[in-house]
Amino acid sequence: QAGLTQPPSVSKGLRQTATLTCTGNSNNVGNQGAAWLQQHQGHPPKLLSYRNNNRPSGISERFSASRSGNTASLTITGLQPEDEADYYCSAWDSSLSVVFGGGTKLTVL
Amino acid sequence: QVQLVQSGAEVKKPGASVKVSCKASGYTFTGYYLHWVRQAPGQGLEWMGRINPNSGGTNYAQKFQGRVTMTRDTSISTAYMELSRLRSDDTAVYYCARSRSGMDVWGQGTTVTVSS
After folding, report:
1. Chain B: nearest CA to A47, how far in angstroms?
2. Max CA-CA distance within chain B?
3. B13 — phi, psi (to 5°)?
4. Chain A residue with minimum CA distance to B50
5. B49 contacts in A (CB within 8 Å)?
6. In DSSP terms, which residues pair with A11 in a beta bridge?
7. Are the beta carbons of B45 and A54 separated by less than 8 Å?
8. How many CB atoms are closer than 10 A to CB B108?
9. H-run or E-run covering A32
10. H or E element: which one contains A30?
11. Computed from CA positions of residues B68, B34, A86, B8, in that sequence, does the dihedral angle turn out positive or negative?
12. Which of B1, B45, B68 to substitute to test the interface with A, most A CBs within 10 Å?
């Protein structure tokens, strides 16, 4: 099954707002919603949100997620240098599998 | 604290098999699915499959069907992922991750290098 579609890169300035997108279809994002993960170089991924906008404890309120149809979005407000990382979306697919996006590299200028 | 600790790095020859372990602690092992995800050098995340530690039931990504086997030993709260008929493009960091609604705890990763 095809993966989810994410833009390869996004660049924003310090303290600005970045919105990352993730497009799937009615079998995955449109049905079950999406989760978002952050990965810094050399580290395992870290869960930021699941089922669209549920944040695990300890995740900053600067990270918020949403979904419209088959597209999920992650909005990061007040960008900080430590937000520079790779961001992945994932979703459960009706084929009984997990699909990932290709990842977006976020650069904080 | 809740953690997943994986076995150490492996170097294998093409055609061989590798078995990676993932030991859970700090939570009820049978209460969460355990996923295996890999990441080739410089690439994105790739889902391989998951196991239900309670029942032992598995779901594998189509790409790995016939080559991957996921098992668990509930007596020692450990899950295993075995990949056979290794190729050079199986060189990657392999992660385990627990989930109920999202993959909220990840192992540290195990580097598997396939080289002749």
Report:
1. 5
2. 40
3. -90, 155
4. A97
5. 97
6. A107
7. no
8. 14
9. helix A29-32
10. helix A29-32
11. negative
12. B45
Mean pLDDT of B35-64: 97
Phi-psi region of B62 (alpha: psi -120 to 50; beta: other; left: phi over 0): alpha
- Sort strands B110-114 and B10-12 into parallel, antiparallel or unpaired: parallel
Q: How many cross-chain Cβ pairs, A to B, lie less than 8 Å apart?
A: 59
Mean pLDDT of B97-116: 96
| Tokens representing residue A81 in the block | 């240098």
Residue with tokens 């050079």: B88
Q: Is the dihedral of CA B19, B25, B30, B31 positive or negative?
A: negative
Segment A3-21 mean pLDDT = 97
pLDDT of residue A1: 62
Which residues, listed in sequence order, are joined to residue A88 by a DSSP beta bridge? Answer: A37
Residues sharing a CB contact under 8 Å with residue B110, sequence separation 6 or more, in sequence order = B6, B7, B8, B9, B10, B20, B93, B94, B95
CA distance linking residue B100 with residue B29, whole number of Å: 12
Between CA A68 and CA A71 the distance in angstroms is 5
pLDDT (mean) for B88-97: 98
Distance CA A18, CA A9 (A): 11
